[in-house]
Amino acid sequence: MSMSSRPPAPPASPAAPTVRLVEVGPRDGLQNERQAIATATKLALIRRLAAAGLKDIEATAFVSPKWVPQMADHAEVMAGLPSAAEFPGVNYPVLTPNLKGFEAALAAGAREVAVFAAASEAFSQKNINCTVAESIARFEPILAAAQTAGVRVRGYISCVLGCPYQGEVAPEAVATIARELLQMGCFEVSLGDTIGIGTPAGVQRLIGTVGEQVPAARLAGHFHDTWGMGVANVAEAWRQGVRVFDSSVAGLGGCPYAKGATGNVATEDLVWLLHGLGESTGVDLEALAACGEWICAELGRPNGSRAGRALRARCAS
Ligand SMILES: CC(C)(COP(=O)([O-])OP(=O)([O-])OC[C@H]1O[C@@H](n2cnc3c(N)ncnc32)[C@H](O)[C@@H]1OP(=O)([O-])[O-])[C@@H](O)C(=O)NCCC(=O)NCCSC(=O)C[C@@](C)(O)CC(=O)[O-]
């Protein structure tokens, strides 16, 4: 391709981010990988993500190693995180399904945790072996202990746009759980399209309904890209006023309890979209794309980011 016909460079991101990106690659992106990934590789991924400018990097999950073996090295990951001197202002949240997980996370130095519920009873049983109401009750002592310890708690809701076991999910059910999580003390609720089945019309209905009970400023969008709607769904949620999005470098991932679900929307694709919308993310897209290429080579899997592949092709031309 000649220089003159090259596409425009990605718009640069000014210093102060206007949209917050929560990079979930080291957790959501890796939890479903069949091959055991070395802790050193996970830590190298986290370091590269921080170097690319990401400020919220979900590092691991304090879940049962019998349920998700890939996250069994959670304490080792926490022990090897970069220092605040190396990457100032970077936050490394972790998943905690119950008090046991929270206590282990706290002992390992976590300063932010996430509890995870579902808007579908069937998914709740498969994922955390309890009903939705039981899961909320399990979170109560986590929220209380976190408050005492000065730890922030994020809430996730899975299957907000459909369930792999149950099918349709009513936006009203999502709204009720979102309100409950915030009332319990979660600072934010991330709405998970776990199987990536939603479309922008569904996102519009969802945010409209949830927004009647919860301000958009307290919501995050967590879209998987299984059906190729990830970027479109982020754009719609953004249009509805959501300014926090979860994503995974190179589109890594999938959920162990949602067969066939692919990774999250790729962080590179989101950064390209958001910069194009005039938002700033604080992320260096080229460094991020290089990180995506590197982790895909490490894992021996294709790069799921369209923007990442486009940047690579441009650099190679
Ligand atoms: C919740 C449990 C633990 C219940 O699992 P359970 O088997 O019902 O737990 P239990 O309380 O009966 O305990 C059974 C054993 O697990 C141990 N145990 C109990 N708790 C823990 C813990 N925290 N850490 C380590 N070990 C633990 C406990 O000590 C005991 O050990 P044993 O006596 O048999 O040796 C289990 O179902 C679990 O770990 N589930 C996690 C599933 C998971 O990680 N899913 C993926 C993350 S969610 C997701 O990806 C969706 C999201 C967030 O990205 C948003 C979206 O896209 O939708």
UniProtKB/TrEMBL annotation:
It catalyses: (3S)-3-hydroxy-3-methylglutaryl-CoA = acetoacetate + acetyl-CoA. The keyword Manganese does not apply. Residues 19-289 form the Pyruvate carboxyltransferase domain. The keyword Signal does not apply. Keywords: Lyase, Metal-binding. It is an enzyme of class 4 (lyase). Its EC number is 4.1.3.4. One of its GO terms (molecular function) is hydroxymethylglutaryl-CoA lyase activity. Pathway: Metabolic intermediate metabolism; (S)-3-hydroxy-3-methylglutaryl-CoA degradation; acetoacetate from (S)-3-hydroxy-3-methylglutaryl-CoA: step 1/1. Belongs to the HMG-CoA lyase family. This is hydroxymethylglutaryl-CoA lyase. It comes from Sphaerotilus sulfidivorans. The lineage of its organism: Bacteria, Pseudomonadati, Pseudomonadota, Betaproteobacteria, Burkholderiales.
